[in-house]
Amino acid sequence: MLNISRGRADIWAAAIVYAIAQLNFLFSSDTPNYLTPDELCNFFAVKKSTMSQKASKIRTTLDLF
Predict the structure, then answer these.
(1) C-beta of residue 28 within 8 angstroms of C-beta of residue 64
(2) CA–CA separation, 13 and 51 (whole Å)
């Protein structure tokens, strides 16, 4: 179960964007609007491990694969 009322809003926002980016292949260098996970982390000023863990929870809970 996700409880987005707990935790920092910037981490949840980054995780949501990360999950969507993964689903839409934005981290693939073959896409025209290529983005690296590090760029996303820098933009939101969050740690990559935290962001990816939350994104994984989001994808699992919402069955997004």
Answers:
(1) no
(2) 9
Burial class (CB in 10 A: 0-12, 13-18, 19+), 4: middle
> Can you tell me the distance from the alpha carbon of 1 to that of 24, in angstroms, rounded to the nearest whole number?
24
What are the tens digits of pLDDT across the range 3-46?
Answer: 888 889 999 999 999 999 999 999 999 988 899 999 999 999 99
Residue whose entry in the numeric block shows the structure tokens 């809970």: 61
- For 29, half-sphere exposure in the C-beta direction (CA atoms, 13 angstrom radius) is 0
3-state secondary structure the chain: CCCCCCCCHHHHHHHHHHHHHHHCCCCCCCCCCCCCHHHHHHHHCCCHHHHHHHHHHHHHHCCCC
